[in-house]
Amino acid sequence: MAIERVGVVGAGQMGNGIAHVLAVAGYEVLLTDVSEEAMANAIKLIDRNIDRQVGRGLISEADKAEAMKRIGTTPKLADLGQTDLVIEAATEREMIKQAIFEDLLPHLKPDTILTSNTSSISITRLASRTDRPEKFLGFHFMNPVPVMQLVELIRGIATDEPTFRACEEVVQRLGKTAATAEDFPAFIVNRILMPMINEAVYALYEGVGNVMSIDTSLKLGANHPMGPLELADFIGLDTCLAIMNVLHEGLADTKYRPCPLLTKYVEAGWLGRKTQRGFYDYRGDVPVPTR
Ligand code: NAD
Q: CA distances (Å), 243 to each of 32, 236, 259, in order?
């Protein structure tokens, strides 16, 4: 299974990073989103982020120009039908992802591999609603994609070996490292990371500390490069809440109960960096804690 053309669905924080690393590694990339604005922003952001890599001497100006030429955008999902691999990186809601795969299926080549960058949703369930569960895999990049080394590869119950190996080769060509996870709620990274973030929100909710003291404690006390609340803002509070809900429902254990304060921030539309406000307010020169 030679993969040369890759379709990316969703041009948000993850989709633009995924398109970026694929293009730099030599793949032809077709990016789509329901929002024209998201696509236009993604191209600008990719350009700026590759410029940074040029500035650091990681790639040349000529390679940058080639990489940018390899990225196309389209508002039509059907245009992704001729790609060899599709990486779905749309909003973390099962209904949305399911609808995307349903709309895409009639246009796909029979051997196109379908993958999802979902942080938590069952790969087996997403796969079962397609015509090719054996060619379906979880392809979970970390944020920010151009910087983070890991890609979690998650086999659904029906995923076959050639599909897994083809995706493993893509990870290698990207210069990243794959870790294999079984298909249980939130896989490995978020199974461990998200309850810690949720616990930090509980500590804030219960008044154990404020935003600064909680983040400073974990940075200086546990040597984490970012505090858990800063990290939650970076990931997106809607995504954090969606992952906690998947853990709570999927494992039926009250220890995964999402903190009501996390729900409140999401209800307010304070989703973190992407909306300029979350546990910190990013509208000024420096981030200001909101509690
Ligand atoms: P985001 O909100 O930045 O972007 C989501 C994009 O999907 C938006 O541009 C939206 O317009 C688009 N979209 C929504 N419905 C669509 C549809 N029907 N067709 C095409 N595009 C559609 O979210 P994100 O942080 O990029 O997350 C995307 C996926 O990646 C989620 O599944 C998330 O769980 C996963 N993920 C996120 C992170 C993270 O740190 N944010 C890390 C790993 C994986």
A: 24, 11, 12
